[in-house]
Amino acid sequence: MSENPYLPLQTEHDNLIGKISNLRGYRELEIPSEFRYLKGAYGAKELEWKAFAFAAEGIIYGRIVLIEGVDSWINNIIIYPEDGFAVPILGIEMLGFRHRIHLIVADIFPLLKEDENLMDEIGFKFDDVGETPPMPKWAPKIFSRTPVFRKPRNTEDIQTAADAMREVGEKWLRFAESAKPLDDKDSAQQICRKRDDYIAHHAEDEPAKPFLTRTFGEETGLRLVNEFLFPSSWEIIRSKLWKTNRKSAS
Q: How many CB atoms lie within 10 A of CB 175?
């Protein structure tokens, strides 16, 4: 393994964030301070949580989380569409422990029936990267049919997984860059319903919940899941507490 096995993923992550920040109407959200930065410990290992949230045209809420320690690197991105916009949900997660990549997930979750094949080409293309961990029983509720869900075995696998992450991000960006509200009320309602179901299922079954409550405490960990990672009410985000603190990108 290289001295920094996370570097290819960190590079693609930074490139994706840069492109997202150029979306029309991009603006960062002023989130509660306890969601921006936290210190905690998992056993004897000290960890830091850093996060920010944003919105853009066609996007009600996106959030990016980085948890770092001496030998740990966890990154999570999920972006949700605004009501009635035909933008699928983007989800990317990378877990690194003991200076090795443990798991990489990159997916575009379709909200309309006609988008169900979105991930097929990418998912099948990278199907032989590393090992396939067991998929949880609740996976169909929050993953497309063919997510990139892999455990790299070596440095080459990590680079290939980074390539997969780039392809997933670029495909999602094409939707986000052309985002327009739907005229079809039935389709618009379907998007809202599937988006909110996705959040509810994720909050209920989130596998990181025990890790977060152990690292940052029971109360804080549950708040991170239910109020920041998978907020149960969009009014939290639209409220005066979560104000825009950066002007739209030009």
A: 18
CB 61 within 8 A of CB 80: yes
Strand partners, 66: 50, 75
- For 81-101, what is each residue's pLDDT tens digit? 988 898 999 999 998 887 677
Closest to 110 (Cα-Cα) out of 101, 102, 119: 119
Beta bridge partners of 90: 79, 108
Closest to 59 in 3D by CA, of 81, 33, 87 = 81
Count of beta carbons in the 10 Å neighbourhood of residue 161 = 26
d(CA 142, CA 121): 19
Find the farthest-apart pair of alpha carbons in the chain and give their distance in angstroms, rounded. 54
**Do strands 37-42 and 45-56 pair parallel, antiparallel, or not at all (unpaired)?**
antiparallel
Q: The pTM is what?
A: 0.90
Around 66, how many Cα atoms within 13 Å sit in the side-chain half-sphere?
A: 10
